[in-house]
Structure formats: structure tokens, C-alpha cells
Amino acid sequence: MASSYEIGDQVRIWGTFTSAGTGSDPTQVFLELATPANVVTLYGYGTAGTIIQKQGNGTYYADVVATQQGMWQYRWTGTGNIITSDMNHFYIKREGPF
Length: 98
Description:
There is one protein chain. By secondary structure, the protein is mostly beta strands. Helix content is about 0%, strand content about 55%. The protein contains no helices and ten strands. The chain has a five-stranded mixed beta sheet, with no helix packed on it.
């Protein structure tokens, strides 16, 4: 089940890459992030303006500030020596009275 958050929350999304069961870094790491309005932004690790951070071998994360209600989708992609892709999503709850 996907996680749900409220507008204004900071959501940490994780990308993990392995080779033979061990955390390993792809040659390049990308994150595609789609808002509920289907605005898609592509980030590359180590590039200017990126939101991707590296925690350890094969482990990356990005902090996303939730600004819109609905389903946010994201895909982590590794290229080069580790070629893989993984999609996931999270929900931002509707604003309303307490």
C-alpha cells in the first residue's frame, strides 16, 4: 500500500541499486518525478539543480515537498554498469477541516 501525506509535508523517496545482493552504484542515476497534474521533471545525480542525494553504496534519496493533492509518481533508473528501473508512488491527502 502506498503512503499518504498532507500538502506541505516533505516526503523522502528512496532508490536502491544492487548487484549480486550488494549495494552498488550505477554509472548514472536518474529520478523522474510526476506531480498529480502530470508535470514530469527528470533529475540526474551529480547534476546542477538535482534533488538526488547519495546515502551509501547503491542507496539514493530525494526529498520532495508535497504541493498538490493526489497521486505523485516516481521512477528511479540506473544506467551503465547496473541497468534497472523501479517505479513507485505516494498520495497527498485532500485538504479539509480537522
